[in-house]
Amino acid sequence: MHSELRPPAAAIFDMDGVLVDSNPHHIRKWAALLTAHHIPFDPAELGRIVLGPPNALTLRRFFGDALSDEQIKQLDEEFEEKFREVFRPHAKPVPGLVRLLTELQQAGIPMAVASAAMRKNVEFFIEVLGLRPYFRCLVSLEEVTHSKPDSETYLKAAAKLGAEAAHCVAFEDSFVGVEAVKRAGMKCVAIASTFPAAELREKTRADLIVPNFEGIDLETLQRLF
After folding, report:
1. Given 1.10.150, 1.10.3470, 2.50.20, 1.10.10, which CATH number is that of 23-89?
2. What mean pLDDT do residues 82-111 have?
C-alpha cells in the first residue's frame, strides 16, 4: 500500500516556531524594545503583529518616520545580535524534528529552510541546533524582494531544490507563513507552537495542523498528496 502513496518532491521548513521554539523569546525582546522606547502596545496582540513579517516592516510600523531607513537597519542588526546572544543557551530542536529530518533524508527527499529572518539568524540557528547536514539550501530575508505572506520565499526554495512547488510540502507556524505556502501552491503542515491549533484551523488554509513533529512521518506527508 505504501508504494501507492506519493512522496513529496521536497520538504521546506520555516525556522522560528518550526525548527526551534524561539517565538516566545522574540515576543519578549519586542516587548522590551517597545517598553524601553515608551511605545504603547497590546501584549495580547503583540505576537500576531511581530511574528512572521521582517523586522524592518515591524520596526517601521511602531517607530513610523521617527527613524531613517539606515537607523532602522542598524537597530535591526543590534536587536538581533543581542537576541542571538541571549537565546543561544535555550536553543534546541522542537520535539520530533530530528527524527523526521533523518527519515526524509534517508528517503532521498531534499530539504530547505525558507525564513523571513535575516541570514545571520538563519545561519546561527542551523549551526547551534546541529541541523546543517539535513538542508541543501537556506533562503533568508536578503534573498527575496517580497517577504511572507508573498510566495517568493517558498518558490525560491523549491527552485533551488529543483522541485515543482505543487509537489512540495512546507512547514509553518504563523498566519502569514501558512498564507505564503498556500500562495506558492504547496501542501502546508502548520505547527501549533506559536498559535492555538483551533485558531490556525479557523484562520488559515493549512492542510494539516499538529502540535509538533512527534506524530509526523513520511507516510503522513505522502497522504497529503
Report:
1. 1.10.150
2. 92
